[in-house]
Write a structure and sequence with these properties.
The structure is a single chain. The protein is of the alpha+beta class. It is 35% helix and 17% strand. It contains 23 helices and 28 strands. The strands form ten sheets. The protein has a five-stranded parallel beta sheet, sandwiched between helices. β2 and β3 form a beta hairpin. It is globular, with a radius of gyration of 37 Å.
Amino acid sequence: MTEQASNDAWLGNQDRASYRKAPNRPTKDELRDALDNAPEAPRADDSAGGGGDTPPPPGQPPEDGDRSYRGRPKGEIYDGCPVTPLGVRGDHHYFLDVLGQMRGAKKLEGQFMQSLFGHQIPKLCFNFAQWEYKGDSWVRKPGRFDAYKASMAMYEATSELGVFNPLNDVRGVGAWTDDDGRLIYHAGDAVLVRGEKKRPGKVGKHIYPAQPPIPHPDEVDEAPDPVPEILKTIETWNWAVPDVHPFISLGMIATQMLCGALDWRPVFWLVAPAASGKSEFQKLIKLLHGDDGLVQTTDATKSGITSKLGQSSLPVAVDELEPGDERSTKERDIIALARVAASGGEWFRGSADQTGVGGKVYSAFLFSSILIPGVMKTQDVQRLIRLEMKPLDKGAAKLNLQPRTWRARGARLKKLLIDRWDSWPDRMSAWRHALEHEGVMGRDADNWGTVLAMADMASQADIATEDVMASWAKKIAFIANADREDTVNDADAMLLHLMGQQYDPYRKGQQYNIAQWVMGAAGLPGTPEGLRHPDDEGHSSLRITQQRCNTQLASVGLRVSGTGEEAQLFIANQQLQQLKDLFRNSDWAGGVWKQSASRVPGATPTPHPLTLAGIRSRGYLMPIKSIPGLTSFPMDRERADDVVGTPVSKHDVEDWG
């Protein structure tokens, strides 16, 4: 209470003007005593509920602390409020508005409050009324509310709920699971939990805010099975592996529908030349998912895709992602996003206010193109399932894809998958076991196990028999082994890069790659004639060849000890300029090569620094036979007999100065 109010309490009904002129004003002690003994002001009747629904007694101004503020339930604006507080993050306060949409604002001003309450604004006015005195009583001002009082209640409610993290707590449209593995399907205007429809809002510990609706699963229990017609249509394309790719395509479509609920999402790439029907296949995919059930584009960027996805788990289909200009990062960034999505990871980028922008992505990606861009890294290839089409036969009839028919089939397929979700853990385990029995392990088992189990779940309620799974596992093992030849680990990739670098120390214009210099230093068959050196009698000398090749290799931080397939290659740890040049603009630049060198099979660190062209450095010794392809030169074996002389001892590793 202000000093002026204290004075009024002491003076009672005395005229304020005469008080100001009075010679004997009350002392502070008298004012304090009057304040302590002042009678409690009457309040609005709390029993009516809702706060400002009961006007104050006649002649008494409304009190600032009625039930809408003091008596509200913890974490709520008022009891039964249609707007739900969520919490605070920094200087933002978050709510679910009257429609269930998530909203956030720094300042809780009148217009923002009205937008939160929407068609329920009358409740806002009722529970936070503004009063005016008319005649001999107080009445509400029609269509007005006390924004200050309402904001106090809203600020306090969000603070009571604590810190809110939109990145982890909010889930957009698509498939999800709760902590018990139960499937939750957010359709935008409804949330399906074990087949039961609920309003968008809080389910368990997560928030499923209202969003524009996506196609719902079919609600008809006795609808015809859509899978035979879907599979029959997919088989009309001219697939490179016709007994495998159609079934895998069915599994891909099923994976896309429930991708956010899966632990692992393979990346699919459809490779097809012109006139193969690739775009028509993309159209079929779009119809099965329905409008807004798939993020599909032919010209996209990473930021464009993440903006479209938001916090949803919708699948993504990118057509015509062809190799771009070498300086372009567009393809690389999109492929990197798909890599993150495979395991449900987070992406980040800087923002203008230096706070950073990011999100989580749980989408299954499908790319299609004539050629796969060469920017894919080993970790990208390990997540990839490749499908391939051939050109259609001349005169092949165009498909008649009726949108209504195919959207209905997609809705029925989605219902089948949701109804059979409880079998998913056992189904996935069974298929993965079958694949591992045929030697398909690791990421290959994650990729193929997921897509095969999803195709199986789409096709039938019961898990496939062991014989069926074994038959498919044999087919997939053949494909996976063939694709594995194109997949190398980081150690092999580092050696492949290093061995392929051109090196011309003599500046004669005739360049040899590092692999050829290493062959000469190790005395291996296949050493180029230009690197062989004769002795005094003009015969090719192994010792001289090895010594001279090693001398040149030493200047770039490399050295070979020993001879033949038992030789070892030394790579320095020191960032020598010429060694740095060999790795420039690669994944191993700036000294990173030593990390991959340590992973080469049989590699051992040197116990003490060794000298290379006058520079001492520690490093790694690795068997020559661990370098892919270096000791396998069947076309050059006949040259081995031409290499004569005394081999270099492996103990010469100590004499590199």
